[in-house]
Amino acid sequence: TSSISTDFKGFLCQVRQVGQTTAALGTFAVRDTSKTKTITCTSDGGAVTHMNKNTVSQQTFDWTASSTPLGVGTQVQALCTVVQSRDVLWVQLPSSTFQELAISTVANATAPPSRPSTMAPTTTPSPPVPDIPLDFSGCGTTTLCYRDPTNCDGAGDCRYALIGEFDDNTRRMTFHLTSNSGGFAAVGFSKDSNMGMDDVIACERDTNTDRVYAKDGWNPDGRNPNEYDADQTSITSQEGAYVDGSVVCRIERVLTPSDTTQDYDLSQLYTLLFATGSSRGGQTDSLAKHNAVPIVSDGAVNVTIPQIVGAKGKPLIKAHGIIMAIAWIGLASIGLLLAVHFKVVWPTGKWFQGHRAVMLSVWGLTIIGVIIIFAHAKEWVYDKSNHGVHNAHPILGFIAFLLAFAQPIMAAARPHPGTPKLAINLQYSSDIVAVSM
User: Fold this and answer.
1) Which end of the chain is more exposed for a tag (fewer CB within 10 A), N or C?
2) DSSP per residue, 17-80
3) CA dihedral in degrees (164, 168, 172, 176; nearest 10)?
4) Sign of CA dihedral 303, 304, 309, 312
5) What is the tens place of the pLDDT at every residue in 282-300?
């Protein structure tokens, strides 16, 4: 019998050997099929979970040990994850230990603590930080890997990294995720190359405790925040750590969930979306917005196959960079040179005609460059958690665009020599804007 002093909506229980995180032991039998059901985990009936999301205060079920014992004195225990709401749950609550015998045995899991602890218990001391090694030695041979940069070799060294390994015996995927964003690292499984209708798994840091949690989510339409599933049963085990400014976690995920509406069958082909961002604190029901446009894999991927995943090219970003370099490094320099040094060489006004033609070209190319980068990003991307480095380029670029757009309009209003004082002020304003750019 599993009960708690506060009502809850969902749960998942397994029995495992103490200290082991792989195979589930024995089989469960339910007493009320309207409230509970068994699911396949290592074997038929290897785990038990809720039938619906109705609020309950107690669930009762039986567990029978395997016909082949592990050995006299081997300690086993029940591990249960209990969900009260989207942001309040207990992960892998252990029962008291007991021995699996050679004969069939029925065991009851002890109740969770009477006082629920949320995803961010500010009064609970932080446990020891787990050691979660990132092993890139098997990339392409035994594991699936993506790294940014491609030669990074550790949690603090990688802006983002994903390692995926498939276990054919348990039919599960084990993912290792890391990011030096300090907030979250996520991977989306998309049926196309765009955000929206994507299955998502993420590890997010709780900024109150620096603990890192794995979460199963869903990206509804590409614009609204990723929603966490109230039912987290597709994730069978997890551990996370926050080390030297990087989040790192290990997530074990069922390959083919019983409900594939929002938890996709990972044996199929999907485009991978790699995203990082700041944390909302760890107690919300969704991820914060990513701090940059997510990186897209260079094709559809079967994550069960060992391979090195590449990133899709970004032609619009390259075009933006090339156009802006031509406009501001090349043409703008020529225009400045004509205005400063060719008034004496071309006193008849040819210098001005050349200056005007070149600067109008800069103006037009700047507008084209801004349109191209917005076509790539599809929106203004701003990282609220970092008002410095991450945001300097878009902010300064947009200021330069506004000044560049206004400059030819102000230049057209420049007066001729001998005009009234008000018109001269317009001339000075135009000069100031030109110098600012």
Assistant:
1) N
2) ETT--S---SEEEES-TTTEEEEEESEEEEEEEESS---EEEE-EEEE--SS-S-TT-EEEEEE
3) -20
4) negative
5) 555 667 777 676 888 988 9
